[in-house]
Write a structure and sequence with these properties.
By secondary structure, this protein is α+β, with helices and mostly antiparallel strands. It is built from eight helices and 17 strands. It binds cobalt (II) ion and zinc ion.
Length: 328
């Protein structure tokens, strides 16, 4: 599974430009599903039949990134954010455009006590003039972090584990499931990082009876961290609440019951910020009972996100358990 994760995280696919990661996922799951299609916004929907009840399982394909807003006379690029980018974390980091162009983030001189904002940063792609820069990128070109996957043993580090790890878990669950008991709509969504947009149209089209997102969550287990009862290596996290969703009690009880029954390590998650695709899914039409299987992740939205493979395995097993449990 690490090889799949390496493959998925090494692709640059920011929100709105998910085509590269979509192609890889499509190839990975083609032989494990009954039907596969793309909707008009680009969500990849893989269907596996097994019963009357429709269960939408969602993982987002997109990742945070930057978008070129201007190219100056010397060939330096100015940019805006695509999703939650923290300017404090960028200087010295690298970005890669979807066409392969690479650049390094630099910063202008700041006045004393001046706050670092995105407008003070630039991206240097090695161009000596605006003309040279324009041969590689243009206003509107998008890039993501450029950082390699590292295998630290039980723990792995990569950019875009948010949410390629969710994609990998859903792919692995689809490969492992042998007796699906529901109609499974495994959906790899677009544009989550800019406001849960793909999940909204996917859910509208599918009209699911239940919705379950698979996505990362923060942890409170690093030095001087804010208090948060989520720890790396302590199991899959069953979301109770975040800023986009209060998990439906039926779904919370289902996930908890399945974890207990199958001896899958789990922990409860109450996140005081953020949201996932389930935030959009549960508000579809007359409402869809929804929840989230979360993967604890350190250093969220940095080029070096970290997860524990034991939690990943727990999340796969929990997803398979949902798929193989008859719901009504
Ligand atoms: Co995110
Ligand atoms: Zn995410």
């Amino acid at each position: 599974m690490k090889e799949l994760i390496r493959k998925l995280t090494s692709i640059s696919s920011p929100s709105g430009r998910e085509e590269q990661v979509r192609a890889v996922i499509k190839e990975e799951i083609a032989s494990s599903v009954d039907e596969i299609y793309e909707d008009k916004l680009g969500n990849l929907i893989a269907v596996k039949h097994g019963g009357k009840t429709k269960v939408l399982l969602a993982a987002h394909m997109d990742e945070i990134g930057i978008i070129v807003t201007d190219i100056d006379e010397q060939g330096f690029l100015r940019f805006g954010n695509v999703g939650g980018i923290n300017p404090q974390r960028l200087v010295g980091q690298r970005a890669r455009f979807t066409n392969g162009t690479i650049g390094v983030f630099g910063v202008e001189k700041l006045e004393e006590n001046e706050k670092l904002t995105l407008s003070k940063l630039y991206l240097d792609i090695g161009a000596r003039s605006a003309e040279e820069a324009r041969q590689k990128v243009m206003v509107g070109s998008v890039a993501t972090y450029y950082h390699e996957f590292c295998d630290l043993g039980d723990r792995i580090v990569a950019k875009a584990l948010d949410d390629r790890i969710g994609c990998a878990i859903l792919i692995e669950a689809l490969k492992r499931v042998t007796k699906p008991q529901n109609d499974l709509y495994c959906t790899f969504t677009v544009q989550e990082e800019v406001g849960l947009r793909g999940a909204r149209t996917a859910a509208f089209g599918i009209e699911p009876d239940y919705g379950i997102a698979i996505d990362v969550t923060g942890t409170g287990d690093t030095p001087e961290a804010e208090r948060l009862a989520i720890k790396l290596g302590h199991g899959a996290a069953i979301k109770v609440k975040d800023n986009s969703l209060i998990t439906h009690p039926k779904v919370k009880d289902l996930l908890t019951g399945l974890a207990v029954k199958n001896k899958i390590p789990y922990q409860f998650e109450v996140l005081p910020f953020g949201g996932t695709d389930s935030g959009a899914i549960h508000l579809t039409k007359e409402g869809v009972p929804s929840g989230v299987i979360s993967i604890p992740c350190r250093y969220l939205h940095t080029p070096s996100e970290m997860v524990d493979m034991n939690d990943v395995e727990a999340a796969v097993r929990l997803a398979v358990a949902v798929m193989e449990t008859k719901l009504d």
